[in-house]
């Protein structure tokens, strides 16, 4: 997994609550057996005016100019500013794959759905929860200032705004460690093989029907 | 020892180790696998030269991409076919039991697992699908995971997790005629919102829940994720035990007796503490219909579509306006005046035999309304289909003008060819009414099987409790 330490990135505001993972990456793209290449179809139904299918040349498709990700001032954005319950619905990890492939490394929202939040950390994407008032202030600032960037520092657990405001955020120690160092969970878990085997032996003795 | 919730008991009995920040390894008993969220996980295993820790904990089935008609001809969409073939090949490579597309045991993974007895009380169950919460109906700890976690469980038999908070949703009283577990689920979501359960494991309890069949409890736990909770669960009782008995993967003989003795302990202790409590009066729940693009945008069938002008909060008002526009609805329209174009009865929420029976009872001797272009019934599994046919339900549906299909996820998420065209409006027994969920531009109204069948006959929503 790619590391995440710091990012000084352009921010794009996606001003709606309950953005679900069906919207982030529609189902027709889930037929892929690969992990990459979902970026051009991130938010497909909002981004393009036609119906997208796998295998299309996305560069030739008509863009929805009104959709915020298509606006010239937000091109190259790496930080997605969102509203409540971002990433709800389907557990598809294709959602963070698509966001990461599109170029996002940080998502800031007042709240996230659990499975999506968890999936982000497995893919070098940092989801940050800030309270709704702070997120609301950021929405105003982004919309008022072209080229608005934020400095995100995972080590310090801080976001620095151009006006000097610093927002602190929480992150689990385990997840922070994995993201800072680009560590995958499997390798870490396999350091505890003896614990797993010991548990399994005890579990099998107690509930042998689970091992039939 | 302190009084424990059911969730505490399930968590503690699977805890392998805990780190100082609370991050834990929990042992997984059952890993259900389908074609959409597994190929990248299998690929990861291969790239790292790893093998699954315990293939006997795994059970695979293709469901999302399979066609529901003309199945003997195979899958015509080449991309979908490759994904199903990839699952088949991975199951052969690693020695994993799979019920293939034309096996009678094939079905939606969350219908198939319990039906086979592959889901049992006291288990931890995971699957790369958010509706894995369904299996909590058995007094199991069950939730959806992402593909990285699918690979992790394959490689280590464990999941990295932090313990959730516990929420108790108490529903008491007798449901009125025509009011079902689906309506309870939608009423709960309407009350607490789609993020109300975020960070929680929900236990459903109370006399209403105790009176539900296992099918009803599965419908309810299935939709815990739509309330934001990764896991929903119901304590074990005689209904649970009777359902499990004799199923292919269930224990037998002395093992059965031992298992049952343990399973009977799987309920929250009297004095157990929950972080949050919610109460609903079942006698006040009416048949529910969603009107918008989130499951929390739900009303009783006798309600009217909301008016954004009456909403103070700016973000909520904008969301309501956007939802009404997407849904092609005018504020204050009575729900019963909304005409529909299509009907979908099926899915992991409502594709079980009890759902087929309930819909058939409404459709019996009637005809699908002329304005309804397609009314389809998609049984949750091949075994549900066979049982329904044995009971003559297929004839009832076909005579009424419904299509009787082969099992799969179908138009719940429209990965196969079953989908809505832009602007089409559907009465659906599935679980998500998100924009585009059933096809780009499609408009979904979530309802119970009874309500869906009644809407098919009337051509618009009707209060099934008044029929």
Outline of the structure:
The complex is a heterodimer of chains A (212) and B (467). Chain A has helices at residues 21-24, 44-47, 94-102, 114-121, 132-144, 173-181, 185-189, 193-206; strands spanning 6-13, 79-81, 106-109, 126-129, 149-153, 158-160, 166-168.
Description:
The complex is a heterodimer of chains A (212) and B (467). Chain A is an alpha/beta fold and 212 residues long. Helix content of chain A is 31%, strand content 14%. A 7-stranded mixed β-sheet of chain A has the order 4-3-2-1-5-6-7. Chain B is of the alpha/beta class and 467 residues long. In chain B, helix 2 packs across helix 5, helix 6 runs parallel beside helix 8 and helix 13 packs parallel to helix 16. The longest helix of chain B has 17 residues. Chain B is globular and about 55 Å long. The model of chain B has no long low-confidence stretch (mean pLDDT 97). Classes of the chains: A alpha/beta (212), B alpha/beta (467).
Which key phrases capture this entry?
heterodimer; A: 212 residues; alpha/beta; 7 strands; 31% helix; 14% strand; globular; B: 467 residues; 5-stranded parallel β-sheet; 19 strands
């Amino acid at each position: 997994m790619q590391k995440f330490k710091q990012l000084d990135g352009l921010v794009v505001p996606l001003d709606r609550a309950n953005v679900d993972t069906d919207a982030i990456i529609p189902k027709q793209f889930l037929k892929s057996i690969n992990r990459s290449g979902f970026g051009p179809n991130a938010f497909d139904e909002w981004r393009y005016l036609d119906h997208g299918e796998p295998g299309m040349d996305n560069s030739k498709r008509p863009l929805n100019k009104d959709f915020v990700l298509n606006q010239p001032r937000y091109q190259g954005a790496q930080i997605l500013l969102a509203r409540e319950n971002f990433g709800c619905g389907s557990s598809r990890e294709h959602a963070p794959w698509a966001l990461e492939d599109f170029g996002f490394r940080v998502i800031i929202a007042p709240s996230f759905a659990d499975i999506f939040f968890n999936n982000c950390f497995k893919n070098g994407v940092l989801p940050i929860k800030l309270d709704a008032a702070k997120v609301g202030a950021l929405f105003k600032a982004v919309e008022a200032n072209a080229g608005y960037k934020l400095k995100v520092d995972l080590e310090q657990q801080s976001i620095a705004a151009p006006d000097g405001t610093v927002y602190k955020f929480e992150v689990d120690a385990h997840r922070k460690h994995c993201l800072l160092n680009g560590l995958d969970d499997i390798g870490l878990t396999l350091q505890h093989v003896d614990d797993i085997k010991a548990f399994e032996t005890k579990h099998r003795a107690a509930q042998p029907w689970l091992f039939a | 020892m302190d009084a424990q919730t059911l969730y505490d008991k399930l968590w503690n009995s699977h805890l392998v180790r805990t780190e100082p920040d609370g991050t834990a390894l929990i042992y997984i008993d059952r890993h259900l696998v389908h074609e959409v969220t597994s190929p990248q996980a299998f690929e990861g295993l291969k790239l790292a030269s790893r093998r699954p820790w315990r293939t006997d904990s795994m059970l695979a089935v293709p469901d999302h991409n399979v066609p529901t008609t003309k199945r003997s001809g195979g899958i015509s969409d080449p991309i979908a076919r490759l994904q199903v073939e990839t699952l088949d090949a991975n199951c052969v490579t690693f020695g994993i039991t799979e019920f293939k597309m034309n096996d009678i045991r094939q079905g939606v993974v969350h219908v198939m697992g319990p039906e086979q007895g592959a889901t049992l009380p006291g288990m931890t169950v995971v699957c790369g699908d958010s509706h894995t919460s369904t299996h909590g109906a058995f007094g199991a700890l069950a939730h959806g995971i992402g593909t990285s976690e699918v690979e992790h469980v394959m490689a280590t038999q464990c999941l990295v997790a932090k313990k959730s908070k516990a929420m108790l949703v108490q529903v008491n009283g007798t449901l009125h005629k025509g009011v079902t577990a689906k309506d309870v689920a939608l009423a709960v979501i309407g009350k607490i919102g789609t993020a109300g359960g975020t960070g929680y494991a929900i236990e459903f309890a109370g006399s209403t829940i105790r009176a539900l069949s296992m099918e009803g409890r599965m419908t309810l736990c299935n939709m815990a994720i739509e309330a934001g909770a990764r896991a929903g669960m119901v304590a074990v009782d005689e209904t649970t035990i009777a359902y499990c008995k004799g199923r292919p993967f269930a224990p037998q003989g002395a093992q059965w007796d031992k298992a049952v003795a343990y399973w009977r302990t799987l309920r929250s202790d009297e004095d157990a503490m929950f972080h949050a409590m919610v109460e609903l009066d079942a006698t006040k729940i009416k048949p529910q219909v969603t009107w918008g693009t989130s499951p929390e945008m739900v009303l009783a069938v006798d309600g009217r579509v909301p008016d954004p002008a009456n909403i103070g909060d700016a973000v909520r008002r904008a969301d309501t306006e956007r939802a009404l526009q997407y849904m092609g609805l005018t504020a204050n329209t009575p729900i019963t005046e909304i005409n529909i174009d299509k009907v979908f009865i099926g899915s992991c929420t409502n594709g079980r035999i009890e759902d087929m029976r309930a819909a058939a009872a409404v459709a019996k001797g009637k005809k699908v309304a002329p304005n309804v272009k397609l009314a389809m019934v998609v049984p949750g599994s091949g075994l549900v289909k066979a049982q329904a046919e044995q009971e003559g339900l297929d004839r009832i549906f076909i005579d009424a003008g419904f299509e009787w299909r082969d099992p799969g996820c179908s138009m719940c998420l429209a990965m196969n060819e079953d989908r809505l065209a832009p602007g089409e409006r559907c009465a659906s027994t599935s679980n998500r009414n998100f924009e585009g969920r059933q096809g780009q531009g499609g408009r979904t109204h979530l309802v119970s099987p009874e309500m869906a069948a009644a809407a098919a006959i009337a051509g618009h929503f009707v209060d099934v409790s008044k029929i």
